[in-house]
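In response to a reviewer's request, we include the raw inputs and outputs for one of the modeled complexes. The four entities were modeled together in a single run.
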Amino acid sequence: MISADFIRGYVDLLVLESLLDEPSYGYAISKRIEQLAQGQYEMKETTLYSAVRRLEKSGAVTSFQGTHTQGRARTYYRLTDAGRRFYDEKCEEWRQTVALVGRFVRDSR
Amino acid sequence: MISADFIRGYVDLLVLESLLDEPSYGYAISKRIEQLAQGQYEMKETTLYSAVRRLEKSGAVTSFQGTHTQGRARTYYRLTDAGRRFYDEKCEEWRQTVALVGRFVRDSR
DNA sequence: CCAAACTACTTGATCAGACGTAGTACGTCA
DNA sequence: TGACGTACTACGTCTGATCAAGTAGTTTGG
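The model returned the following structure tokens for the whole complex.
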């Protein structure tokens, strides 16, 4: 399991990726991340929900209430154009970070 | 310039790498990191010094006063065996993180 | 049929760590 | 002498991840 400290800084990236193709809601996002992470990482609920609220405040996503025929009401989040650009920027920053940190990683013997 | 939020989590790794070959001191470590980062990232003094103190407290490094013929006294830090293992662990975690986050990064069009 | 598990979220408090600001201290060089 | 480079230290602030706990509806197994 990868520690959260290592993912810190990329929480937004993971969440935004889950919204690229279609709007989604908290629980589904967390399940998607869990699945893509193949059991190596699990985002805590509070981390996720605080992230989507932060993203909404910054204009990267908008929220709307899902029409729920059954089950508890869901709050869906949709990526805005600004959010898509934000995601692309994060991806680019990630690539740069990989190159940078890579220079500090040596093979262990 | 890569934002510090993206490096957060790898600060210890960068610092430890600078101590792999020989003991070093704060200022020299920061210069080394700056150089290896090729201008893409600069670790703030406060971040660096709080990191070495944290590492010392956890037993990853030990400190000693350098014999200074000139200039202000320097505090040198030497990697312990535990620190070396800690570094290797961090590197391994880094590789896993790269693989993990990579699955969330899509090519921008 | 009831309890447990799963879905779906919220609130509030706490904590680590990165940062800004500022200051101390010593040396060299113009 | 005063600017600049070296070499730190102290203190306060802020963000963001976490823990703990609770609320609430749905589904499923014994």
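As requested, we also summarize the result in words. DSSP finds five helices and three strands in chain A. Residues 4-5, 7-8, 11, 44, 46-47, 50-51, 54, 70-73 of chain A lie near DNA strand D (CB under 10 Å from a C1').
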